[in-house]
Amino acid sequence: MFHISMINITIEGPPAASGGQGGWSTERSFESLSKRLLHGMMTKDTFTVVMGGHSAAAGHGNHFKQSYMMQFHHVMEPVFEKLGMKLITRNMGQGGLGTIQNALGSQSIYGDEIDVILWDSHMTEGGNPDFDFFCRQALLGSKRAPFILGLGAEFPTLQMLHEAAGADVGGLGNGMSGVPATVDEVQVNSLPWAVQFLNCVPERQDLCGANKYRTQCWVEREDVIPPTGQGAVVGGQAGWHPGFRSHQLTGRVLAFYILLALDEAIQKWSEITVTQGHPLADEHWHMTDYYEGIQKNIREMPPSFCEQGSVDRYPTRLCTTSLKARTEYTPRADPDKTSIVSILKPAPDGYIPSVPPPLYEGEDVPNPAMTLPEGAIDVRSILSRGRGRRLLSAEEQSSNVAVAQMPVSPEIDYPNNSQKVRRATDAITPGYGWQLHSEFSGFCDGSYYSTCGRENSSSCLLSGHNDVRGGILGDGLSGWLVMTLEGVKEGLIMMNVDYWHGEDPRTVGWTEVNNGKRRFVREMESAEDLYSVEDTLEEEFEQHRELGAYIPPAEGIVLEFSINGKITTWTRDELISHNKVVQRVVQWMVLLDDEEMVKSEKVENIELALRLNGCGRECSLSVNHVYWA
What we know:
Number of strands: 23
Strand content: 15-25%
Shape: globular
Number of helices: 16
């Protein structure tokens, strides 16, 4: 059921049986996984496991904590605590999307200290090129060149990365080969609760369907009264989404995968120190040179799937360059510091777009839908009470790194192109008309302890899900959106945008840019007035629309963007030509691609600004991601 096959990846693929068992890896990769865990124990460090994937992986239809990543964390957190490590688990799945929008900017959005990263997006992101893109950005963006674990992933990419770059790879199985069959309503009661209604015989698939989900949107409490009626079940209970039982099993399979590597790490530590004494020699657990070697190989290896997929989609050098990012999509690591809002310059009166506060904070009351029934085995409780000497004291280490403050560089050579480029005649001042849309309130980092989506308008406050496609929306009256990009050295600036969110609610009733406000001459708005405006627009924030086709920008739209005061203007036709639809509802546009900047070896802070012109309120633009390197 949990057996992991070790393969010679040079000459063979994983055996067919591994898909229904624990999965597969290679001897070298699995030894490295054990060494990573040993490093965590020796340094009392964090151990971070991250998943990027689609709606099924995110756990739609279930509560967020019923998703397999959270089920893994629920079981494994006390184990890591007893060994002196802090386990961080992030479910970064997003409904209706692949991973490419977040993979570009992996170091910021997924995090830069990832030990194991899972890809589970085969329904929305097939093919080797995009999977290779995901892997490359993860390997280059994390300080730890993570172990790559695929679910239904393209084997040729994993084989190539293992052989050409020395990356650690593996595949996760589903564990179903060991699950006994559910035959009927009576026989099922003889099975352990965890496997009931999980593997129904063909003639009784109705039993599995009827018992697939277990959710409850609200539990009555005296201190919180939801202003919106609460639904009966969590949304997204589609036929193609796994239920809570399947997620629980996948979480257990992942737990056994890590536990086996952990067992090997502890056994190695014991065997070596018995003969050589304490402390364990550095060579057995130091990893920095190993990680740097993988990253060097990625940058120098021959072109492969990622480069093939770049044609007419993105600059080829993205396959060997790690980018920083800011986004309004959630979940994202360290959400307060990785939002686009965090790098915006305020308007003259201090206005910066913001999200209304959540309805309530703190822990939720116990939810019967996630409570184990009487007689079921409580695995976490057993592990929490486990006997044995504590090897190391648990200790949380801060990962915050001070960033040197650099002044905005006054000049940068903009690459030659056919667009109109000019130097701004006066200072570029942030506008008043940009507004956040579709963004959840709360702390949405994809972790077990995230608190997300508690809006007044929510009809399922106990859902717990983190994934939503937020953005900053503006139109031809919104003025400039101005931000500072720190540490630009590769000459790359890109955005992910869309044009389908309709009118900007903030500019309702306006007839002039910034509602007639001029730089240094303005009518002050109180904080209460601004909050009131946002509160009335809260319903707009909750419009989560999924599209199947590209929607072009409105007629008459003109985009102006400024890089350190040098303005470039794109007409609608030029804007369309620069927009690359790289995946469903993911549109990238490259604002700067200057390879000469790399040769200068300078590191600069750049002021980036953009605005729409020529279309008043008839056009709009949502800025969803900003990327740079």
